[in-house]
Amino acid sequence: PVSTDPVNYEASHEALQLSDEDRSYVQAWLSDAFPAGFDGLSHEQIVFQIYQKIMSGEFTYVADIGDQWESMTQFLTSKTGDCEEFSHLLYSAIDVAFASLPELEKPSMTVLAGLVGSGAQVFGHSLVEITLNDVHYAFDLTGSIAPASLLEDVATLDEYTREYSFEELIRYDNIQTTLNVESSALRNFSTSSSIDDTLDDTL
Q1: Contacts (Cβ under 8 Å, ≥6 apart) of 144
Q2: What is the pLDDT along the chain (203 residues), one digit of tens a residue?
């Protein structure tokens, strides 16, 4: 069952630490996404093909009532999730794919959680920053952005920040979490927040 406990944002990285079952589910999903394997594919092609597979319509976005982060096993079984499940799958699938390719260096990746919008229209949101050829791309898998057909169509993090007034509050990989605000300021934060949700006044 899905945990109903509040998300501990200070330990967000734990959501990216896959169990053996999670890893098995992700590997099976990758086998479907890459029926011919990874031979001959570049870093960019592997990353972008994983992104396209997630964006192909296989999964359905459903906003949580409060954050209830699913494991990869749960998400790949239900095929429904909030923005953080989509972000976590992109991160996890790339991580698992490159773990099987010792000859290739895994791209630098970080999941970012923060706020998008301005004024009364501010939402909690999750995306993935991936660095390819020294370019920091912002992969937003559940926002209003149309799916990119080419890697060059994906916004850089700087472009995304300007276009959507993105305010980064948390960044994490599968090793550590970095908060850009005091932990007390996250008391009312949620990556599934509505426009009526506000952050603590200490922000």
Answers
A1: none
A2: 344 456 788 899 999 999 999 999 999 999 999 999 999 999 999 999 999 999 999 999 987 655 678 999 999 999 999 999 999 999 999 999 999 998 899 999 999 999 998 887 888 899 999 999 999 999 999 877 789 999 999 999 999 999 999 999 999 999 999 998 887 777 767 766 433 333 333 23
Burial 131-170 (b: 16+ CB within 10 A, else e): ebeeeebbbbbbbebeebeebeebbebeebbeebebbbbb
Quick one: how far is CA 27 from the chain centroid? 18
Q: Tell me whether residue 109 is exposed, middle or buried, using C-beta atoms within 10 angstroms of its C-beta: 0 to 12, 13 to 18, 19 or more.
A: buried
Question: Which tokens belong to 19?
Answer: 């169990």
Q: Which residues pair with 108 in a beta bridge?
A: 131
If DSSP codes are grouped into helix, strand and coil, which group holds residue 29?
A: helix
Report the run of H or E that residue 79 belongs to, with start and end. Answer: none
**Helices vs. strands in the chain: H and E counts, helices first:** 5, 7
Is-contact 166 160, C-beta < 8 A? yes
Tokens representing 77 are 């079984």
Q: CA-to-CA distance for 125 and 45, rounded, in angstroms?
A: 26
Among residues 199, 139, 171, 194, the alpha carbon closest in space to that of 10 is found at: 171
Give the strand pairing for 121-132 and 80-81: unpaired
